[in-house]
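Thread: quick sanity check before group meeting

JM: Hey all, I'm pulling together slides for Thursday and realized we never actually wrote out the predicted structure for the chain we discussed last week. Dropping the sequence here so it's in one place. If anyone has concerns about the input, flag it before I start.
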Amino acid sequence: MFICLSVGLHLFSDVVCYLYRCFLLNTIRSPDVSELEANPMEIDEFSAAWSYNGSTNQPTDDTGQLDALLQWMGPNNLRTSSLEPHHFPETGRGMRATQDLAAGTRLISVTSPFCYTAARARLFRPEIPPHLLEHPLDCLIIFLMLEDQLGAASCVAPYLRSLPRTFTNPLFSLRGRIPQEICSESTDLLRRQRGELFSSWRRVSATFCHLAEAVRVGMELEKFIWAFFVVNTRTLYVTATEPALVPFLDLFNHSPVARVQTRWNGAEDAFEIITECRYQAGEQVFINYGAHDNMNLAIHYGFTMPRNPLSEVLFDLGDVAKKLPVTTAQRDFLRSYGAWRPLSCSWSGFSQTAKLFLASRLVRSSDLWKTVDVEDLVDDRTTRLALMELLCDAHRDLANFAERASAVPLLQTVYLEMMDILHENLRVLEESSGIVSDTV
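JM (edit): ok, ran it. Output follows.
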């Protein structure tokens, strides 16, 4: 009777755990970021668990860890073309060409046993439930947490030792708390990332409910935060639909001008990267993480690029309309061209939609639907003065944001770059119009 009672209690516990897990998964399948943000107790819980307080994405003792990583992977699973790890003053650890590389050269090839997709993670850790394959990044997070718990006994111990334990991403530096005194673009991106963090934690913690007690030990929030940032800063797609963690590939640094092809080589059962650029011996070899401005690079990857050609400054249409009012006909015209959206400028000047906005103000309503030469920047003195005032106001706002963001160096760097972009565009306006601004 005692045995039956014991078995019954275990079954009851499993059923309750299963129902609780299903309840959590159903309630968070499509998380509402604003709803997550409205839970201060959850924010406090995350902030308290944020015990790491480092300031670098680079693990210590690079040489020993890389040697161990290379030995673990072996030459048959990792093939590179005349490349070697090297420390560069500008970017830190990266990959250097040991001889000239032509366009079309295969930079690296990693075989499937070392491409850790969600499906492969489940092969190593069957505790990961199959329904979580709908959220492959969560599978990789759980995989890292379970393997990290094993320490030196882990099947991927050399890879784990090569990973950072702390990150420069602003949300990590802020310990999950988003200050009110930063610009709205930063706030929106950080809130979205924090919403993703909370949503992932709820799914992952619901999964832990069905794990054995011995396995659940060490599955604390602090370890989840570490695994979340590893996955979100180092995952790449080995196929169109399969994100994966691939050891050694995170040694390649990003360049917005690098051109590469990535593909799955079925004949060799390997993921490979082919460069479309030429490199000379001794140069750093880059790959491209995607079309990201510095704001997105900082928040999602934890670094910025000097004079990033994709960085831009956006101007709210409400602020623009106060200084550069438009008629209803002009607004309809701009909407038809997809140009009724925030104006923007970058290192290369104003965007095409911004030029169209400015040019439309000089055209009579009856002529709006005729050809407008958007390459001609506005010659109207009133418009130029209003535009310069808009740039100066934005420059002052960013200066305030940069001062308040001193505790988050990477965000401060982004704001300072945006100020430089504004200053450069203001200089061009001054030189072309003969009008000198005294506010910047």
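AS: nice. Residues 2-27 form the longest helix (26 residues). Residues 141 and 227 are 5 Å apart (CA to CA).
JM: adding both to the slides.
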